[in-house]
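yo, ABC transmembrane type-1 domain-containing protein is done. seq:
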Amino acid sequence: MGVIETLGAALSYLFSHFDTFLGLLQEHLTLVLVSVVLAIIVAVPLGIAATRNEHVKRMVLGIGNVAQTIPTLAIIALVFPLLGLGFLPSLVGLFAYALLPILTNTVTGLENVDESTVAAARGMGMTENQILRKIKLPLALPVIFAGIRTSAVLNVGTAYLAFFIGGGGLGVWVITGISLFNTPQLLAGAIPGALLAISLDSLFALLERHLGNDTLQEQSVATG
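structure:
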């Protein structure tokens, strides 16, 4: 079967099972977005704390690096005995996998802010919290968002493994298609995942530009 015929068969399979596809896509997207949002909520404050205390920095980055070296299937295997099957253990595994890129980029972005800009803000009488909110975070935003975009794209692929612990998602079609040598089913699950990764990356890039414009305007007002 040629490439065109294979893609046509995959498209035909998708549309003939479209209701199932929408359910799997919703599960997949929910796993990715919720895990990345939770990772942002945890990793950004941890990154800020790490830049203020060298001991905290070593501890946080050390734990993050160790967590990232553990294979995804191993994380799922560790979570399964504690939380069982379903959405929650899948979410925990994806959350753990999304932490490190956001954490390391937050630390890197904040530490690379030009010291002369910070010194000028201190000279104007700004407190450390004001400097963080009005100077450091706006300047570090592109680097932090690079970590968020990396986590989102990685988790789109990682979420396929949620199938093994009953987490649903597009992995249901991909893993089943591999097991049954059903190439149209496999591609019907894999291609939308690739398009989803591209779409999320573009969405976060747009959000970064929007927030960047707003925060830089605030910064220019703050620094006079």
